Amino acid sequence: MSPSRMRQVVLLGPRQLTVREVEVPEPEPGEVLIRVELCALCTWEQRTYTGEETFVPLLGGHEVTGRVEAINGSTYLDLHPGDRVAISLLNRCGQCQACRRGYDNICEHGFDLPLRYGIPGPAGLSEYLIAKVTDLFPMPPSVPPEHVALTEPLACVLRSIKRARIHPGEKVVIIGMGVMGVLHLQLALARGGVVIVSEPNPDRRAAALAMGATAAIDPSREAYRERVLALTDGWGADVTFICVPHAAVVGPAVEAAAKNGRVLMYSSIHPRGTKVELDPNIFHNKEVVLTGTMSQSQRDFFEAAQLIAHGLVDLDPLISARYPLEEVRAAFEAALREDTYRVFVTMA
Ligand SMILES: [Zn+2]
Ligand SMILES: [Zn+2]
Predict the structure, then answer these.
(1) Does the predicted TM-score (pTM) go above 0.85?
(2) Tens digit of pLDDT for each residue in 125-176?
(3) d(CA 133, ligand 2 centre) in Å
(4) Is 79 in contact with 138 (CB distance < 8 Å)?
(5) Residue 304 CA to chain centroid, in angstroms?
(6) Could you tell me if residue 232 is inside a domain?
(7) Distance between Cα 296 and ligand 2 center (Å)
(8) Are 255 and 228 in contact, with CB atoms under 8 Å apart?
């Protein structure tokens, strides 16, 4: 028997949050009640906690691992109570132009999740969750719950990697060695890229070199474009992934791109609305492509779940700390520190 009440985190504004008690939701036909095991604190939740994102109140939490508690109706999946699942918490309406054209990662209603609790948000920082069967990705029991929760960010990175079309031996520069930078590093290496990272934090540079990067640039002391050219025999970067939210890196990234270079804006740029100035002739003369990716499609999520289920990505270096739900504030403070990667809030 599931309990009838559960705890849930509500983000309220700069350094303000509360843990409230609400009814455990009832799954409608085709829906599944999930008992949440843990939820990671991603950048969106962190920015809401600091006040940089002002959309509050918010039920944050979208990198979630849970176990099936109850299924309402039948499913073609081999899914049973107790099974561990990764959960896609992005709404994919299936009806809008973006969804019908195959871009369900940028569904026009991506964030219109049902207002089950009176407050918007994916609500992963809750003891129970409702999900559609189509948004569940069953995982082998041997996969640690922290790894399962990283399916969502890995899926986003996988989309970025696929869009870059890395050819074996191409020079790949990754700007920023946070969680997303590290995931890009691993997948770029798996595609045969020769990876250079750019990161001001010396510990993160050292970690990137230990994980297989060929060289590391310190952009706080070195001239980015000159270093990239020096490290690529004057050719430039075939692929550049921007994994920091700073507009100032876009110009140098485009200028250091090789002929036919692809520059991908993985991160959103903050503050939103910031402009960048670029010489348009770079695109003409060198056929450079500047593009980006947003979230992940259902297919990207499926593929990321496969990689994690089969242990093909080394996620242990990204697991920094776990805090019980009662200590969710301490968890946020830890997540904001430079010496952590992912911090998890455990529910059980
Ligand atoms: Zn995330
Ligand atoms: Zn849609």
Answers:
(1) yes
(2) 999 999 999 999 999 999 999 999 999 999 999 999 999 999 999 999 999 9
(3) 17
(4) yes
(5) 11
(6) yes
(7) 13
(8) no
